[in-house]
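Figure 2 data, in text form.
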Amino acid sequence: MPERSAREQRVLVLAPTGRDAILACQLLSSMNMPSLACSCPDELFREITAGAGAVILADEALQPDTTAGLLEVVAGQPPWSDLPLIVFTRGESSEQILDLLVPLGNATLLERPVRLSTLVSTVKAALRARRRQYEVRDLLERQAEADRRKDEFLAMLGHELRNPMAAIRNALWVLDQVGSKDERAVRQRETIQRQTRHLVRMVDDLLDVSRVTLGKIILKRQTVDLRETAERCLADLGMKSLAEDKGLTLIFRAQSVSVHGDPVRLEQVVCNLLQNAIKYTPHGGHLSLVVETDRGEGVVRMKDTGIGLSPEMLQTIFEPFAQVESSRQRSEGGLGLGLPLVRSLVAMHGGRVEARSEGPGQGSEFIVRLPLVRPEEKRPVAFRKPAPAVRTVTEPAAVGRHILVVEDNPDGRESLRDLLEIWGYQVSLATDGPEGVDKALSIHPDVALVDIGLPGLDGNEVARRIRSALGSDEISLIAMTGYGQPEDRRRALQAGFDRYLVKPVDPNILSQLLAEMRDRGDTRHAAGESSVA
């Protein structure tokens, strides 16, 4: 029997006077039930921690210090554990002992003299109950291991999907600059761009649902205007254009509504509702997005004339992977993760979401309700300005700036080089970690864009070696990676990266960041010249 299993089946006995402990152990051993006589309370407490199937106590052992220690040890057991206690009592002490053991819960009293058959059957029942507890523990451990493996799989899946999407997005931007301006070519590039955004959102939803389920999302709260959140979803994130391309009429009506929340996550809520309505509303349909206050709450109403929901689906639509029955043959059916994510994020903000529909073919309405900001909580409203247009090769500020790209994916590497060269940067390439370090130390680029999942040395080790050799003032380091978990970001910043970008990176955001680092480099350079002078 494995050591852990053997310890867990033991019956521990504490009877400090007479021969009760020895006799009980002899009897149990004769019935093939392993046991151990403990010489003192401290030994009992140690052995309980090491593993026990049940504990037999004589009432004279239950002195105040022993009872307090026993309560502490049992309270420290895992949530699945309910250690069975069997206590030998004298008739007159039973009620007192029972009061002492009430906090322990799983206690059985046997009045002396104890019949041997009664003791054996009681111990067997206690061990059966304990084995069921171990089964629950093993199930929880398997679930925890499955969750860990799922997290690893999702992280790898996100990385593997984001790398090709990054190459596609970069290539599309390059084609927009140098490709054919023929109407058909432009239209096809726009189609690829829309589908790429769709893929990116599905990957993000998949990872976010897992993180919400495991409690790994931390909200960065501030005062948020829901009207501005909705406006960004419509304009900056292309939802309005997406609706127009599908021939849908969209009515947007909003008032300023301040709530206390995470602007990025609330934007995710509104965009998911918009995208869901657009996806399931046929050509020529109508959409209505309303932001208002109602009975002291901030309300977002998303209504459509789409395929609608049956009464049964109204009960399950917010469950992960739920699919509307009539949509399963649709190519845009999705993964069924957008609405579960909406519900989870809204709940994290102290709000609630509900779905309404008159039935299949009658359209749907989703209503999000969030607590309003109280007057004493009001702070400056969060507003993220749209990223400025990307800089082009004609801008002289980029000329002469040297960027090192360390990327093992050939398409991602080449498309990023083309993009940077269009902007006017001088670009060097490295295909793995060791080559990236060597080139950084030999050519001293202004910026290094480094993937994390590199062969030879991973990106974090590349950053550490470059920082160790060049310091923090000689080069700016930007991680560009498909790994998007918070712990991935934390490790990268600790390794020496200045910024952390998750693929596929919007070229506008990359251009803006490079401009900021270029300006910072100019400031450092000017300060250095001034100090020399």
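Caption note: Residues 441 and 470 are 7 Å apart (CA to CA).
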